Amino acid sequence: MAATLVGRANAGDSTSKEIGRTTEKEINVVLSTNFGKLLIGKGEPQKVMVARGIGSDDKLAPITAAYEIRNRIGYLDLSLGEDDHREGKKKGSFHFSGLDGGKWNILFSNALPISFDVELGVAKGEFDLTGLQVKDFKLSSGASDVTVTFDEPNTSSIDQMSIECGVGKFSGKNLGNANFKSFRFEGGVGAATLDFSGAISTEVDVHVEVGMGTCTILIPREVGARIFFEESLVSKIDVDRSIRPTNDSEYLSDNFKSAAGRMNLHVETGLGKVKVRRK
Q: Model-level pTM?
């Protein structure tokens, strides 16, 4: 079943397009962009997606999308700032003509579980996932400046949340609200902050790998923390005093066994630097 697409012009230089809900019970989103600014957030329950292109002096190519429903799952493939004459163009695809601008603002239904697979090139991404039912989240970015935020507890569970950043900045805010079982972060050259504030109420696994960049990890004081790290001549870690070493490769907080929420943090570094702090 192909999408029903509705478009309308807004005031100013903005144009919006939307996909209305029909029979889908969840959404699977594959999104890619090579450049520009991308804003993701919560939309209206009865609209699978609303996309707005906001004009500026730096005009971007329109959005190309393919959307179809199979077995009650809506599959949405979005390409921003790319040509729509790609080989293997999917059935049911459509072009958001007139939706070109300095940035894109894309809102998704908060009434359906949603899985994200995102690839950014040289771009700026702001993913405010507050209020969305995030079932899966995978992000790969090149030379990008990216922020991911969960200001409220996620009502869906994420088995593994995966983030990979090459060159650039990454900021994760209130990641404890993401309701993940496993979290993996890989950073190349750049600076990252992983703030795990939020509702961690079970035992979770976090894997952080840093090449030549820096990463600051913030763990709430009420969360029990166990850190695994093999120190060498080139790889070092700076751990909060409240999390004490038990041997050459493990650190443990006093409340690890008694806390309702616990984190097993596995850290690997090359020439980069990792700092772990309580919040």
A: 0.88
